[in-house]
Design a protein that fits this description.
single chain; flat; 26% helix; 3-stranded antiparallel β-sheet; 15 strands; alpha+beta; 8-stranded antiparallel β-sheet
């Protein structure tokens, strides 16, 4: 496989309808938001989880596409696989609680094994020095938090059920018991939703770090495929309707790049669609209804006077 030779920067634009894109466990699972601007947030960890899940679904069990960070995984047991490959005749490996490479050459072999076998290590990097030591590696792909383009308005929705949890509760209900001691668990709880939000996350892909993990051109295409489809297999009642709407990629013609990433991202402008006209978000929009669909926005890309050696690719 051809190791990645070009630097890339990308912006992924996605939406949520009547769902919670990323709940905050420290705030009762409310949608995450910036308290100063009330703009919604989705963590990089959340987005990487969806990429991992998609890759696992698309290539489950295939060599080179295993997932290192997955639910219920024991990371040290995955490290042990590397030691068994590097030291196949060492009978002590099976029960050892702590393992370290014998020298720098073996340390590199252990890290290389993890990169070759686990897509997310090869892509995002990992700290693999937890007891059974496989070193650590910085991945070529890094992502920012996603932020909504406008403030969001989280809603708290009560949810109920019709069934009783036990016979005593059913009897109380049947007998019309309205006493203060009545145990009525019909109200199940609450869920938090965002009626509509359009979010933008930025990503950065370093060809120089790709050399260290052997992140390839085909890995890059799989990453873009996952970004486009990451919500299609992440459906749940809590998520509502989420979808990737745009994936805009800036390709540099060399490994180090031809322009700062922030200047390229500034070429992407998202405004409100008011009668078919672009209205900047910072303009006063008080007299217009809140956005409730992607068609309420217009996304523009400034393609004029691009820095030499930079190409814009719209994947979606």
């Amino acid at each position: 496989m051809t190791v990645l030779a070009n630097r890339y920067d990308f912006a992924v634009i996605f939406e949520v309808k009547n769902g919670n894109p990323n709940g905050d466990p420290d705030a009762g699972n409310l949608p995450r938001l910036d308290p100063e601007t009330n703009k919604g947030l989705v963590t990089d960890v959340s987005l990487k989880r969806k990429i991992r899940n998609y890759v696992d679904l698309a290539h489950h069990g295939e060599d080179g596409f295993h997932i290192y960070v997955e639910e219920g995984a024991i990371l040290n047991e995955k490290h042990r696989q590397a030691y068994k490959a590097i030291y196949p005749d060492d009978a002590k490996l099976e029960k050892a609680a702590k393992l370290n490479p014998k020298d720098d050459a073996d340390a590199k072999k252990l890290t290389a094994f993890m990169c070759a076998n686990f897509f997310d290590v090869r892509t995002f990097g990992a700290v693999m020095s937890t007891g059974i030591n496989c070193g650590q590696v910085k991945g070529p792909v890094q992502m920012s938090f996603a932020s909504s383009v406008e403030p969001i308005m989280p809603l708290e929705i009560s949810i109920t059920r019709m069934a009783a949890t036990n016979a005593a509760e059913a009897k109380q209900k049947a007998e019309g018991d309205d006493s203060p001691d009545r145990t009525d668990n019909r109200t199940m709880g609450r869920k938090h939703i965002v009626p509509y939000g359009l979010y933008v996350a930025h990503g950065f892909i370093s060809a120089k770090f790709a050399e260290r993990t052997d992140f390839s051109e085909s890995d890059l295409e799989l990453l873009f495929e996952a970004l486009v489809n990451m919500f299609e297999h992440d459906r749940s009642a809590a998520r509502g309707e989420m979808a990737t709407r745009k994936l805009i990629v800036f390709k540099h013609d060399n490994a180090l790049g031809n322009a700062p990433a922030h200047t390229l991202f500034e070429r992407i402008q998202i405004g409100r669609n008011i009668g078919g006209e672009f209205k900047a978000i910072d303009e006063r929009l008080d007299n217009y209804p809140p956005a409730r669909s992607f068609s309420d926005y217009i996304v523009t890309i400034d393609r004029d006077n691009l820095p030499a050696g930079v190409e814009i690719i719209e994947k979606l």
